[in-house]
Amino acid sequence: MAAKKSMPTVRLRRLATQLRRLREGADLTREEVAERTNINAATLYRIETAKSRPQTRTLLTLLDLYDTPADEQERLKTLSKESVKPGWIRPWHESLAEEYTTYISFEDEAQGMRNYSGLFMPGLLQTEDYARAVIGGVLHSATTEQIEDRVRTRMERRAVLTKERPLHLWAVIDEAALRREIGGREVMHAQLEHLRQTAMVATVKIQIIPFSSGSHPGMPGQFVVMEFEDPMDADLIYVDGQAGETLLESETDIKRFRSDFDHLVAVAMSPNDSSAFIAEIASEYRRNEARP
């Protein structure tokens, strides 16, 4: 079996960004750096795109070439050493897709998240029973153990909303996610009550897009925009669809998805109206629980 590739971390992305900016600040191309240092241009590209971590000797060579101050060199050397440490990985994550474990590692260190979900509740807002029903339905060929690993991971991820410096979550959800009966009426009622209660948390904002809004930019699929505290860390886009999970970080993608999210916010109900709407649909499930 092939070894699992090492995944990028927030720190590795930060290091890559800063090394790229130092090179650009020195007014050097990658080819010019290669000529002066004998560091392969392809290797430099991988370092600057967070696809690989620089060896200590390579890092020091680059920092010297860029005339980096001593205190900055020490900071970047420390950052390089810490860049191999994923922020949030557990032993049972071995069965999870690499893109997904990479995503949850970034999620753990994000300061803010803008999450659009059209067909089911955002992962951070799911109850355990709802998550089990969703995962079992989507991953219909998965074993019980694989499903439980996913459920366990999803429940643990929710800790980012209650930690000392909680993630600021802004979720926009299509009405379809509230109406689709996943796991049965009792599960749906509990899920919507959980959603309504979570909307009261100061660091969580939830807005619902009603069917009456018609077509909108979120209809092709769900996505997440992650924002980080350090200004050196660019936003990161996570897209989960039929073709698999994808992480995007180009300026073009960031601008497009941010624009899409702003449009979704504009067509959604206000947070207060959304809470009332969630409560209304939850009551419908409660009334229908006794029906066959």
Automatic annotation (TrEMBL):
UniProt protein name: Transcriptional regulator with XRE-family HTH domain
GO molecular function, one term: DNA binding
InterPro entries, sorted: Cro/C1-type_HTH, DUF5753, Lambda_DNA-bd_dom_sf
Entries under Pfam families matching the protein: DUF5753, HTH_31
Family annotation (PROSITE patterns): HTH_CROC1
Domain HTH cro/C1-type: 19-73
